[in-house]
Design goal:
Layout: E1 2-7, H1 13-22, E2 26-29, H2 30-37, H3 41-51, E3 56-57, E4 60-61, H4 63-70, H5 74-99, E5 104-107, H6 111-114, E6 120-125, H7 128-137, H8 142-149, H9 155-158, E7 164-167, H10 172-190
């Protein structure tokens, strides 16, 4: 069974993923896959042609510079996704096949929109003000957080596709407990 974890920027997807990892579940993080993919020569060349030489620093894509350019214009976000998502999907599928586990979690901010095939979807929801508060503590400025959140689909749209909801407005322990409950249901489902 493949469970997808999705949610807005800063919603707590990583917290949920870590909870599943502690339960012994293999986790594939689409953002990490994406970081590797943008360094592949064909992808890197396309990104440079599309967004300019200024995104390269010491021979590598500077993700912050790329993000600053891309998250200024919805069309640029769409173009970045067109360039990277097919390769990211391919890498995720390869990783899933290589794992051959009964339960795998795939964490992706654009899980539904990218067309990642999963058996169940967990949507992590967090109030905007809570996301801003947490990310400011982590060193983000509010303007950047708001800008990035603006490019993510609303939870009200994603909730229609999710089988599970994790409310991440409370403590980390409360969030982890919800992940454990979903894990128990998922493992039980495997034996039915």
């Amino acid at each position: 069974m493949i469970i997808g974890v999705t949610g807005s920027f800063g919603s707590g997807k990583t917290t949920v993923a870590k909870a599943f990892e502690r339960l012994g579940v293999s986790v594939i993080d689409a953002d990490s896959v994406g970081h590797r993919v943008i360094e592949e020569e064909d992808v890197k060349e396309t990104l440079i042609k599309e967004f300019g030489e200024e995104i390269v620093e010491n021979g590598k894509i500077n993700r912050k510079t790329l993000a600053d350019i891309v998250f200024s214009d919805k069309a640029k976000v769409v173009r970045l996704n067109q360039i990277t998502h097919p390769k990211i999907l391919e890498e995720i599928e390869t990783e899933i096949k290589g794992l051959q586990k009964r339960l795998i979690v795939v964490v992706a901010p654009f899980l539904i929109e990218a067309g990642i095939i999963v058996d169940k979807i967990i949507l992590v929801i967090t109030e905007r003000k809570k996301i801003i508060e947490r990310l400011k503590k982590a060193g983000w400025n509010e303007e950047d957080v708001q800008r990035r959140m603006g490019f993510h689909p609303e939870d009200s749209e994603r909730i229609k596709r999710a089988q599970f909801i994790i409310d991440n407005n409370g403590t980390i322990s409360e969030t982890e407990e919800q992940a454990k409950e979903i894990y128990s249901k998922s493992v039980a489902f495997e034996y039915i």
